[in-house]
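Exercise 7.
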Amino acid sequence: MNRHLPSSRRTLLEHLDSKDYTYKTKDGHVCSFDKEEIDLLNRTCSELEKMRLRLPIFVSTDPVSENAWKVDGTVETAVVSKLLERKPFRDDMMRFYHPDLKRLRDVLPNAVAVLYLP
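Solution. The predicted structure, written as tokens, is:
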């Protein structure tokens, strides 16, 4: 389970500087982000967020609510909040439901990784 997750994650700024928009998964596949996704994140993020936002952004199942998804982390929460135009639950955690996950995946199809927690 979750073999599709990256073996390591680089920041948005590192991707922008290197112009390498790829990452390697735990099972050895190489995945890439679309240039449009990187450009959108570049426009959305502050300079500090660009230095701290690690890609792909992790969205996980929320064990508290059976039908909810969540994003953890201050920077990740701030960026997802801007993209979805929704107020976060807390500064370091945002809970949302399937329609919002679909909207997020429509905007960032490759820059969001969904992980499943028991």
